[in-house]
Amino acid sequence: GDFFGEMSLLEGHTRGVSARASTDCRLLKIDHSAFGQMVREDPEIAVRMLRKLALRLRRLQEAALMGQPVASVMREGQGSAAGAEPGATDAHGGAVLVHRETGTEFPLAEDGETTVGRFDRVTGVSPDIDFTPIDTKKTLSRSHAKILREKGGFSIREDVATANGTFVNGHRLATGIPVNIKNGDKICFGRVEAEFKTL
Questions:
Q1: Which of 45-49, 150-154, 188-192 has the lowest mean pLDDT?
Q2: What is the DSSP letter of 27?
Q3: CA-to-CA distance for 72 and 62, rounded, in angstroms?
Q4: Integer Cα distance of 13 and 1 in angstroms
Q5: pLDDT at 89
Q6: Contact 119, 130 (CB under 8 A)
Q7: What is the DSSP secondary structure assignment for residue 198, as one 8-state letter?
Q8: How far from the centroid of its chain's Cα atoms is residue 168's Cα?
Q9: Helix (H) and strand (E) counts for the chain?
Q10: Strands in 4-144 per DSSP E
């Protein structure tokens, strides 16, 4: 679900960089008119793009303060924040939540935070990981919990108290307090059970 080339799409300018795939992948080419229609139908697309742009801007600001070259910060796929040791974040690779009953894998964001919850029919906003089809008994909140990826690893946090709670290896999270998670941990979002796995 990642994207690139969004600056030229938003500004209407010629792209200044190119991209090369290191593995087989599927790409969707989106022109200006298609992008406008997508945003009208799903405003969450614009929100995710803003988050990505804000992250890149913050990295550029941090790099400028530390005298780092811009190219090293903007290089795609490295995943390391400014000031981090080379490969510090990349050592964790990708991460997924695996639904224990169906084996379905839900990938986490490559950097920053991933919201887990269910679709909000009122606002039309979906979380990054939408458990709506799995949560048939509606035990999840719309924004149930967040998984954060940082230089030191991964953590999970429940920003607002939920009716059915979030559990890591059987222990319920206290609202607002992040808990570190590691490969193989069992996480329950309400009654939806998943396993956290790093790739």
A1: 45-49
A2: -
A3: 12
A4: 23
A5: 35
A6: yes
A7: E
A8: 19
A9: 4, 11
A10: 95-99, 105-107, 112-117, 129-130
Q: Which long-range contacts (CB under 8 A, 24 or more apart) does 53-62 make?
A: 53/6, 55/111, 55/112
Res. 78: pLDDT tops 50 = no
CA distance 72 to 80: 10
> Tens digits of per-residue pLDDT, 109-162?
887 899 999 887 766 778 889 999 899 889 998 889 999 998 778 999 998 888
Bridge-based pairing state of the strands 166-168 and 186-189: antiparallel
Of 177 and 76, more confident: 177
Three-state secondary structure readout of 121-187: CCCCECCCEECCCCCCCCCCCCCCEEEEEECCEEEEECCCCCCCCEEECCEECCCCCCEEECCCCEE
Distance CA 17, CA 5 (A): 8
Nearest to 194 by CA among 141, 117, 123, 122: 117
Dist CA 34 CA 41 (whole Å): 11
Under DSSP, the state recorded for 193 is E
